[in-house]
Amino acid sequence: MSGRIERSRSNGRPVAPSKGERLADWADGRIGLNALAKTQMRKVFPDHWSFMFGEICLYSFLILILTGVWLTLFFEPSNVEVVYEGPYEPLNGILMTRAYESTLEISMEVRGGLLIRQIHHWAALIFVVGMLVHMMRVFFTGAFRKPREVNWLFGWTLLMLGLITGLTGYSLPDDLLSGTGIRFAQGAILSVPVVGTYLSMFLFGGEFPGHDIIARLYPIHVLLLPGIMLGLVVAHLILVFYHKHTQFAGPGRTEKNVIGMPFMPIYMAKAGGFFFLVFGVLAVLGAVAQINPVWAIGPYRPDLVSTGAQPDWYLGFSEGLIRVMPGWEINLFGHTLALGVFIPFTLFPLIMMAIAVYPFIEAWITGDKREHHIADRPRNAPTRTGLGVAWLSLYGVLLIGGGNDIVATHLHLSINVITWFVRIAVFVVPVLAFVVTRRICLGLQHRDRDKALHGRESGIIKRLPHGEFIEVHEPLSQAQRHVLTAHEQTLPYELGPRRDANGVERRVKRSDRLRARLARAMYGPGTQVPKATAEEYRELQHGDGHH
Ligand code: HEM
Ligand code: HEM
């Protein structure tokens, strides 16, 4: 292509390609981007406000990298002890680690340092909120179903790594809060039977707090975890591209097409704008909302714990698990087993795992091997929605447990009352949340059915000649009726007759029996309201029109 002379359309004179064209030709000849761009840049993305959560994760992650790289220029990950002498008077003459001192310098002496530190911290909080909300969006709409299960797992791994990255970052400044967090983690490690003590000694380079921990957490926080996450984010987005995005039901939308905006230029322009919006919000937060004022908290000392010590919100629920667990401890063959710590420590990944494996369990129960590109409305999958809300409610209850001291002081209650409330609520609230959510979903399904058949209540009351009052219903458009009735209603998996035609009893595997029972619980009688059918609608239309 290079060196090609084109004729201008206006007067037929040959024109040399512009510099830009030559550069594009040069790059295309070597990287072949043109062919890729031609096929991919016009890719269509469906639009819905809830699809923005994934973007919030992406942009806050990029901002974390940008601000994080900047912080590395000034932060010193060192446990070496120094005596502070600087512009912040109240700490002058106090012994602290170099890590803490350099964080003070970033906050007080480096120009713009406090702003960038605060943006980094706010971005971390928003990043994890974004991931949780994005994950729940995917969960509630069933967007994890085939072929997106692997991408669900990529995303889930990102969430787990995000939590750990947040914890390691929070631990770096070595203030009293971050040291307390490290102490908490060390307690959890110590509770691991038999090897716990060795693990702790290895990690901390001797007795707690040792001299190594910050220097060890540092490369994990700035290189290892973000590096793995970056790779996973790229893989995640490639898969979103490859599978194409799910879309909500609507006229003309099928399992085989995608209706929306082209990636280039419309979606890219929107995405670019949204990036700056997210950056803008984080910059304003970083500028006006104080976060983690390490100078006010003071340097870490193993013999001190400040009241109200809290992890960042996303780890509050793991803290809650430990705070509300009875302090069980047993002695086994001369080894102390701190079950009061070890059980919650193992429960935390199990609660997270429940959400990781859900797509596979649902696929097993339904036995559905088809691809799904039309997103569910949460009300049309009441059991799944109920389970999602129950999971969230457990998260919320444990968060209260993690902040039991704060709740106690703010509500003027005894801390024991809160602890006992959480101990009971951990079992009761998720069940209640499940039942109530499922009922609400069924109620909404009833309403959809009524709306599809009888139209929307207009609020206009009419009196008929014979005296009866009726409310006038406005018919829905065909498109609206389609949206209300497009969903599939899954039939529960059945075991089939237990005896064959010759009366011989068939052996049924235990796993099959479990599957049938779960399928009945999820899709059996009372779990969905039959959707309005075309026949019912036609019958009503041709009847007396009397609703
Ligand atoms: C998923 C990504 C990340 C999360 C969730 C995260 C989270 C955090 C948090 C919560 C802190 C404590 C901030 C504070 O002082 O109040 C922190 C500190 C820090 N982060 Fe990150 N971070 C991430 C990525 C990165 C990256 C990619 C880098 C560098 C390349 C980085 C470098 C740093 C440094 C140097 C500090 C210590 C300075 C300080 O605390 O002021 N972070 N991080
Ligand atoms: C660093 C964290 C993450 C980033 C940057 C990210 C980014 C994105 C983006 C931009 C999209 C397309 C737009 C959208 O649907 O919102 C998407 C889709 C998706 N994400 Fe994530 N995500 C992250 C974490 C997660 C998590 C925690 C999960 C679930 C556990 C997840 C599962 C999915 C799935 C299944 C899709 C496809 C959805 C569909 O086609 O409807 N992602 N992600």
Automatic annotation (TrEMBL):
Protein origin, superkingdom: Bacteria
The protein's name in its UniProt record: Cytochrome bc1 complex cytochrome b subunit
Classification via SUPFAM superfamilies: Transmembrane di-heme cytochromes (SSF81342)
Catalytic reaction(s) noted: a quinol + 2 Fe(III)-[cytochrome c](out) = a quinone + 2 Fe(II)-[cytochrome c](out) + 2 H(+)(out)
Residues that span the membrane, as ranges: 51-75, 119-140, 152-172, 184-205, 217-242, 271-291, 332-361, 381-401, 413-436
Pfam families xref list: Cytochrom_B_N_2 (PF13631)
Region (Disordered): 1-20
Domain Cytochrome b/b6 N-terminal region profile: 23-249
Keywords: Membrane, Transmembrane, Transmembrane helix
Database matches in InterPro entries: Cyt_b/b6_N, Cytb/b6-like_sf, Di-haem_cyt_TM
Named cofactor requirement(s): heme
EC number: 7.1.1.8
